Prior knowledge:
Blueprint: H1 2-31, H2 35-69, H3 77-104, H4 112-118, H5 121-135
Helix pairs in contact: 1-2, 1-3, 1-4, 2-3, 3-5
The structure holds protoporphyrin IX containing FE.
Protoporphyrin IX containing FE binds at residues 5, 8-9, 12, 59-60, 63-64, 66-67, 73, 83, 86, 89, 126, 129-130, 133-134.
Amino acid sequence: MLWLKAFHIVFMVTWFAGLFYLPRLFVYHASTQDPATRETFKVMERKLMVMTHIGAVLTVGFGVALILHTPAWLQMGWLHAKLTAVAGLLAYHFWCMKLVRTFAADANTRPHTWYRWFNEVPVLFLVVIVLLAVLKPF
Ligand code: HEM
């Protein structure tokens, strides 16, 4: 059980490394007109997105394994609230995927300031989900 939880947390960190850095790349990408720099950001975004996918799949995988190990968790309010927040996090993840494609097609129309706010969103998810998982308040 503790091995499952340990790897659940390891891959959660991997997932968030991608979710924190991808929007930062979008900020820089939206700030530059230089074609060569844009091509570099496209490569970085594509490769980072792969790492972020791996983090997401294995965080969810080990999370589900934890539930299969202790099905009683499914009765707990904290897990219901946590999974609702994780659904929001997955929506943010898929939005990033769509934005990687938009930038790859040189089709971005949003200013870099918009991405600076977009970049803050994962922090809110991280704090809420970790507090629910550790404190189990209800
Ligand atoms: C579908 C996705 C997820 C599922 C099914 C899931 C499920 C679980 C379960 C059942 C536990 C065990 C609770 C315990 O033993 O105390 C757990 C622990 C934990 N989860 Fe998740 N989780 C998911 C996603 C996440 C995400 C996205 C994060 C981080 C933002 C996260 C952070 C944690 C932490 C920090 C713990 C350790 C809590 C502790 O030891 O007190 N989980 N998770």
